[in-house]
Amino acid sequence: MTRQLSLRPTPSGRVPRTAMVMAAGLGKRMRPLTATRPKPLVSVAGKPLIDHVFDRLVAAGIERAVVNVHYLADQLEAHLKDRFPGIEVIISDEREQLLETGGGLVKARPLLGDDPILVVNSDNLWIDGPVDAIRLLASRWDEATMDALLLMVPLARAHNHDGQGDFYLGADGRITARRQRGRVAPFSYTGLQILHPRLIADAPEGPFSTNLFWNRTIEAERAFGQVHQGLWFDVGTPRAIPQTELILADG
């Protein structure tokens, strides 16, 4: 019997059962496209941004997706209803108050369980490299030494991105520092991470950023980064859409 050799190796590691999909933002930078629809429903390369994300979640074997909603929430809920068989969609309702990323995690905490979760921005668009990016993160995850594992992309390969980088990584992948004002950091956060729910504790009430959790775990030397092996696109403005589609069309 001839053995088939895979050209795309599958990394080992337990993929989180649950994902938290951040979809509650106002999408101000994407105006005027977000005047009548939430940013996750803006179409890029023939499908809404959030559909690109869910395609990746399904392919990686995610079983549950907790999605927070605020702006034009009814549209987003209706779009997701029964759209992705095989993955349970649970809504974390922020209609009364937009809580930002950190506050959104606190609000959704009772829905997330106690095992490590995948957290992904709904406007995140990436193309896998030699291996599935979610499975790559899962293969690197070590609960004994990590509270957060962020997927990074080298700043030079951050398509459409106007930032100056976010983090510095050590030789072992540990996040050693954040970018300082007036300087450039070599790695940008892609909007995809594995997070342990134990980190979602001792938090303030109301809206706040995930930066609070990140700063805490960086100080404890339990924050790590994994470099993305494929393509990543910052699709935050209308002008980024045709630029992204052009690169994707070139294969």
UniProtKB/TrEMBL annotation:
GO terms for MF: nucleotidyltransferase activity
Naturally occurring in which organism (per UniProt): Sphingomonas yabuuchiae
A matching Pfam family: NTP_transferase
EC number: 2.7.7.-
Keywords, sorted A to Z: Nucleotidyltransferase, Transferase
Domain Nucleotidyl transferase: 19-140
InterPro entries: GlmU-like (IPR050065), NTP_transferase_dom (IPR005835), Nucleotide-diphossugar_trans (IPR029044)
Enzyme class of the recorded protein, top EC level: transferase
Keyword Protein biosynthesis: no
Protein name: MurNAc alpha-1-phosphate uridylyltransferase
